[in-house]
Amino acid sequence: MKGKPAEPILRRVRDIILWADDRMTEYLKYGTVQFACKGDFANFVHHNEKTVTLMFNRGAKLQGNFPNLEGSGPSARHMRFADLGDADDKTAELSKLVVTWCDMMAPRKVWSTKSSTGAARSGPKPRGRPRLRP
């Protein structure tokens, strides 16, 4: 990303995505940054220009109201960022997209505070194997 005309926008969008959910990761694929959470989420396309386009590889699967998500094909969707102000304006929507994807692909585990009998548990969740008594 270094030295590209839209580098400040690329970095801002990257930060928004990675800060939105701790389950989101990044890696390089096909010469660009790929964001993923149990499957490819999005990557930068047309990043050699002065603007940034983020392609959501399976964006059609994302359920919800995302007015800045463009496209009507069977799989991919796009979100465009003209400048840093535009990226800032779309922060809430992009963050919601990230959380929606992560929740769909890798739902968070929720530990119940009740035992199987319905009684409330006390103390922390047991860890490791139980110790055997001689």
How would you state the average pLDDT, rounded? 85
The overall strand count is 5
Main sheet specs: 5 strands, antiparallel
CATH topology: Yope Regulator, Chain: A
Which structural class fits the helix and strand makeup? Answer: alpha+beta
Distance between the termini: 61 Å
Description:
With 134 residues, the chain is an alpha+beta fold. The chain has a single domain (7-105), classed as Yope Regulator, Chain: A (2-Layer Sandwich), CATH 3.30.1460. Helix content is 26%, strand content 19%. It has 3 helices and 5 strands, in the order αβββββαα. It has helices at residues 7-20, 84-89, 91-105; strands spanning 25-29, 32-36, 40-45, 52-56, 77-81. A 5-stranded antiparallel β-sheet has the order 1-2-3-4-5. A hairpin with a 6-residue loop joins β3 (40-45) and β4. α1 crosses α3 (91-105). The chain is elongated.
SSE order and pairing:
Layout: H1 7-20, E1 25-29, E2 32-36, E3 40-45, E4 52-56, E5 77-81, H2 84-89, H3 91-105
Antiparallel strand pairs: 1-2, 2-3, 3-4, 4-5
